[in-house]
Amino acid sequence: SQQGEEDPQALSIQEGENATMNCSYKTSINNLQWYRQNSGRGLVHLILIRSNEREKHSGRLRVTLDTSKKSSSLLITASRAADTASYFCATALTGANSKLTFGKGITLSVRP
Amino acid sequence: DAGITQSPRHKVTETGTPVTLRCHQTENHRYMYWYRQDPGHGLRLIHYSYGVKDTDKGEVSDGYSVSRSKTEDFLLTLESATSSQTSVYFCAISGMRGGVQDTQYFGPGTRLTVL
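^ inputs. structure came back:
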């Protein structure tokens, strides 16, 4: 079963609107990461939030983490057509050699 | 972009033939990974390495083997390719921070088609 599951699977919004994507996971984590993938390209790291953090910002991105609910959200404010991509959450368990487990991704379409 | 390359970028092969994909990094990172990406399945880990000659299996390791004889290279081998191994393969690297793996940096991917 997936450790990280994103919701919704697909999201279509108008340019300028905010996009909110959610991720839920099952077991305790060390950190949670969000990645973006443009069509035909490799994944690009966006932001990492550790288990003792509740919120982080990076430019137009805001990530929250609620360890009691085992969930995270990624908010993209004032979206642009260039934000059109797939977004993945990934969870890292504790332990030096632990692996990242990726969700299946959210397809975001931003209409100009 | 992180210094990570994959070769070849595209390959078409026939069922039953051996295939080796190469991942090369110039970042001196400790960890290297091979993933496959398929529609409806997201990104799945095949094998990973936490040091030279230290490797471990991921969730979809059957039919794949890996080798890491030096820090910068991580090879993925399909001993006898099957059509179910048609996929896009990504290599990733990461370092350590605070005793835990840091963010992963991905290569551009290899599109493999097995006929």
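Chain A touches chain B at residues 2, 30-31, 33, 35, 40-45, 48, 88, 90, 92, 94-105 (CB under 8 Å). The first strand of chain A starts at residue 4 and ends at 7.
thumbs up if we can close this ticket
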